[in-house]
Specification:
The chain is of the alpha+beta class. The chain contains four helices and six strands, in the order E-H-E-H-E-E-E-H-E-H. The protein has a six-stranded mixed beta sheet.
DNA sequence: GCCAACGTTGGC
DNA sequence: GCCAACGTTGGC
């Protein structure tokens, strides 16, 4: 089992949206993020992170329910995520499906994560980090998870 | 709204 | 293959 963090702008797609139904994580157009998704397995656990919003931070947990498969929006000319270099025969971009697991009673804010010296090495907290899909190591996962309660 | 950091593109 | 220019991300 592996652990991950995925960012989403809640104005576009929030954990409340995920709660209603599983979703396919389409639209990732960054090689590093794509490669991380290709490394995901069914059952992998995901911190769900709200970015670019009022209360930035980890808001809950999701899990992978379908492993990486071609992102069809990449060859759809009407899609915002269209990439002319991708085709059904030779797909360039991939996505996974995730479903809701639980929501934290309070947002584990970015500011509070930064205050924890044990989390210093986290990729998320590195300056200038813009990756929308990143791995979380097991120690970090449990450290963070321990600080949370479910709704 | 600002801007630093980063990834990508394209000319050379 | 280098690197300047550009577009995007995302915290503040």
């Amino acid at each position: 089992m592996n652990y991950w963090l995925m960012k989403s702008e809640p104005d576009t797609f929030s954990i409340d949206d995920l709660k209603k139904q599983p979703t396919s994580w389409d639209g990732v157009r960054n090689y590093q993020a794509r490669n991380h998704m290709k490394n995901m397995s069914n059952g992998d656990q995901v911190f769900f992170y709200h970015s670019s919003c009022k209360k930035i931070g980890i808001v809950g947990i999701a899990q992978v329910i379908k492993e990486a498969y071609p992102d069809h929006t990449s060859w759809d000319p009407s899609s915002n995520y269209f990439d002319p270099k991708s085709s059904p025969e030779n797909p360039k971009w991939f996505m996974v499906d995730i479903e809701f697991v639980r929501q934290f009673s309070t947002t584990l804010t970015l500011a509070s994560l930064k205050e924890n010296p044990e989390l210093e090495s986290m990729a998320l907290l590195k300056k200038g980090n813009r990756l929308s899909v990143m791995p979380i190591n097991e120690i970090e996962w449990h450290l963070i998870n321990r600080q949370t309660q479910s709704n």
